[in-house]
Structures are given as C-alpha cells and as structure tokens.
Amino acid sequence: MAETPRSTSIRVPEDLRDQLAAIAGRRPLADALAQLIEEHETRRMQAQAAFADALEKGRMEHPEIHELSQKRADNAIELLRRMSAQ
Hints:
- The protein is an all-alpha fold.
- Helix content is 80%, strand content 0%.
- It has 3 helices and no strands.
C-alpha cells in the first residue's frame, strides 16, 4: 500500500507565503521545493569546485606559501591530538 504523504505547516512571512501560494497554483509545491533543493546543491558544488580550483592555482603559483601553511596545519593537528589524548 502506498504511503500517503504527510502534510506539515510552517510559519513564514506573509510576502513569502503569497509567493509560495502563487507557485502552488502553477505546480505542486513539493516539486518547486525539490527543484529549489537541487539548485542549491548545484550551486554548492559549483562553489566547492571554484574554491578547489583557486586553491590549486595558489599552490601552483606560490608553492612556498602552501608548504608553510601545510606545516602550520600539521602542527595544529598534532597539538590538538596531544590535547585530546590528555
């Protein structure tokens, strides 16, 4: 037997409620929310990829700074490990 979707209610500002009502009049609100989540995830992945590209570019252009920052990060990790072991 198929499970009946549960409904939920949330408080939203009036202008947002009106926008949601307009969307719900054109298509199911669940579809609009699913699309919104998908778009958010896409933007998040694009931002992560852009950050990774910028980081790699920095590593290539300034290897000495990258090496120094890596040593500092390693030292900080080691210090945290020692502190948590106590």
